[in-house]
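Entry for 2-acetamido-2-deoxy-beta-D-glucopyranose complex. Fields follow.
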Amino acid sequence: MKISVLQVLALFFLDIGVLHCYGWARHTFVVQETPYTKLCSTKTILTVNGQIPGPTLHVTKGDTIVVEVRNKANYNVTIHWHGVKQPRNPWSDGPEYITQCPIQPGQKFRQKIEFSSEEGTLWWHAHSDWTRATVYGAIVIHPKKGTSYPFPKPHAKVPIILGEWWKKGITELYDEFLASGGDPNVSDAYTINGQPGDLYPCSKSETFKFTVDHGKTYLLRIINSALQDILFFGIAKHKLTVVGTDASYTKPLKTDYIAISPGQTFDVLLEANQPLADYYMAAKVYSSALGVEYDNTTTTAVLHYNGYDDGRNSSSTPFLPDLPSFNDTNASANFTGSLRSLADDGHPVHVPLNISTPLMFTASVNTFPCANGESCAGPNGSRLAASLNNISFQLPSTDILSAYYYQINGVYGDKFPNVPPLKFNFTADVLPQYLLTPKKGTEVKVLKYNSTVEIVLQGTNLAAGTDHPMHIHGYSFYVVGWGFGNFDKDKDPLGYNLVDPPLQNTIAIPKNGWATIRFKANNPGVWFMHCHLERHLSWGMDTTFIVKNGDHSDAKMLPPPPDMPSCS
Ligand SMILES: *[C@@H]1O[C@H](CO)[C@@H](O)[C@H](O)[C@H]1NC(C)=O
Ligand SMILES: *[C@@H]1O[C@H](CO)[C@@H](O)[C@H](O)[C@H]1NC(C)=O
Ligand SMILES: *[C@@H]1O[C@H](CO)[C@@H](O)[C@H](O)[C@H]1NC(C)=O
Ligand SMILES: *[C@@H]1O[C@H](CO)[C@@H](O)[C@H](O)[C@H]1NC(C)=O
Ligand SMILES: *[C@@H]1O[C@H](CO)[C@@H](O)[C@H](O)[C@H]1NC(C)=O
Ligand SMILES: *[C@@H]1O[C@H](CO)[C@@H](O)[C@H](O)[C@H]1NC(C)=O
Ligand SMILES: *[C@@H]1O[C@H](CO)[C@@H](O)[C@H](O)[C@H]1NC(C)=O
Ligand SMILES: *[C@@H]1O[C@H](CO)[C@@H](O)[C@H](O)[C@H]1NC(C)=O
Ligand SMILES: *[C@@H]1O[C@H](CO)[C@@H](O)[C@H](O)[C@H]1NC(C)=O
Ligand SMILES: *[C@@H]1O[C@H](CO)[C@@H](O)[C@H](O)[C@H]1NC(C)=O
Ligand SMILES: *[C@@H]1O[C@H](CO)[C@@H](O)[C@H](O)[C@H]1NC(C)=O
Ligand SMILES: *[C@@H]1O[C@H](CO)[C@@H](O)[C@H](O)[C@H]1NC(C)=O
Ligand SMILES: [Cu+2]
């Protein structure tokens, strides 16, 4: 420890003083166990303030807020502010054992959340084991006073949060998943704003309803908080116009459906221009891994037109949207590949053009041999795993951020490879067995301040080729290109979009394909990178960036707050 008690006290009072001066808005999140009945089965779930989805945080671009997280439950928990860059302040970011140890039962942690360039929709969620299944909510970032949306002001706005529901407890699911070595049980339902909708047995009254006036335009803030699945979403008979993603505006994109990865958000305009009636909005799975089970159910909510008397028309059921088939990779990639940054005078793009740090990461599902005396439910009796550049990431037992800040050895290594250790036909139909077993490690990638980083994310067909929604904390990145098959370093860069690529914080590497992202490493700190499918994250499809301080005083990481949760 290189910090004295006096310094801690000084920081504490300084912090209180600052809070007082600026009057940052303060919120309290009480994490608690709440009895909950859904699909005719009752269980106790973790919630924030007893709600699911949890409270929506409303802020204005550039605000700083403080959320005091009080853990009144019997489980460890942490909260992550997904897509909020938190300039120089990884201390509040939330992923357990990366930037903090868990907030243990009975403890609290006051997290300062600083918004910078984000505008639109983000979300917050738990980042400890699989507790995010029920601990999540929306973050709405309004334009600054005197500025407005780059589209006509919508009549009303509504968060549409897609979720995933198991009748049994999440802890039971998670423990069983860890013990079995196989895939986790698929979910029993998907949800829209916490409600499955009326297509499930025993769910008639559990439907979210959104009422509109004919002729008006609405802004839907769509978030995918599902644990394990990319989803297709659409509204019967209505076009959707995407105008933003991950709190960054896009060129308007008119579409019948969206494909949304866990972690992503889309701001979508909906024109209520159809005959007065009830219409379903619906979501169902996009699942590309061959032979992997999936939840084939459809969650619905009702779009209801004012003036439509459903009482007199009770026999008619709403129309369902026509969504792509569960394995339609083209439909998913086509939507994702059609996104473009707004890129106008008010919303310039800053794509790094001169790359100082070219990287290539393979994302693979793997297997480990089953341990002696165990029986494992993975392929051929193995234990399933996952990796980036053939390293299956192991969470340490104290957090990487304090190990870095206080220079504690033995918590992590800095040998994450810049390129895949072996070159092979990543997307071949058949791959040799010896490639399948990764190494275990806690290796980070260290980046110089202000380096310009490009990462070619390459999916592989080891064990099961599938999409991987990769998320980086502390940054948004430009998605400059993507394709199917193996990345071709000579041909593919010629097709990069360096003019108006979308700026995102989560991007799905297409099944047996690649995606290239670029960002400038100007946010010093410790930042997690991981697949946002929770089973892949748990299997080790993750790594961590340490972005070094720059020379200037405003290019350095801030000191820790006085109430960081303890690791013991
Ligand atoms: C998972 O599925 C198996 C087989 O259907 C069942 O026995 C088990 O209870 C399920 N576990 C959970 C947590 O739902
Ligand atoms: C979903 O899968 C179940 C079990 O495999 C099957 O019985 C059911 O018909 C399927 N439903 C749909 C809508 O495909
Ligand atoms: C009931 O629905 C039908 C078909 O959508 C429509 O033609 C009819 O006018 C409706 N009737 C009432 C009373 O709303
Ligand atoms: C999707 O699955 C169906 C079987 O349900 C199969 O016939 C079809 O070939 C699959 N399509 C793709 C693109 O994999
Ligand atoms: C997907 O698109 C590719 C070309 O981009 C085409 O060859 C293939 O047939 C399409 N697959 C389906 C299922 O539409
Ligand atoms: C998506 O599909 C449309 C129609 O088939 C096509 O014109 C467009 O080029 C495709 N876009 C992408 C990004 O694949
Ligand atoms: C690219 O960056 C390098 C250092 O990283 C610098 O020497 C070079 O001048 C830059 N080139 C351009 C065209 O900016
Ligand atoms: C890689 O595998 C794919 C799919 O099996 C095949 O089409 C392609 O020819 C292979 N490429 C090379 C260079 O062997
Ligand atoms: C990963 O590393 C292990 C251990 O060194 C090796 O056996 C395996 O072939 C490697 N696989 C890949 C895809 O690099
Ligand atoms: C399972 O074993 C068979 C036969 O040895 C092999 O062809 C297949 O690739 C194995 N699958 C996995 C995922 O290890
Ligand atoms: C980082 O980049 C910014 C903008 O390109 C520049 O203004 C700043 O001087 C750079 N800082 C360092 C330490 O290189
Ligand atoms: C909760 O967190 C503490 C501190 O890291 C750890 O020692 C403990 O094992 C955790 N409990 C569980 C159930 O994971
Ligand atoms: Cu993944």
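NOTE: Helices lie at 5-22, 170-180, 329-337, 400-405, 534-539.
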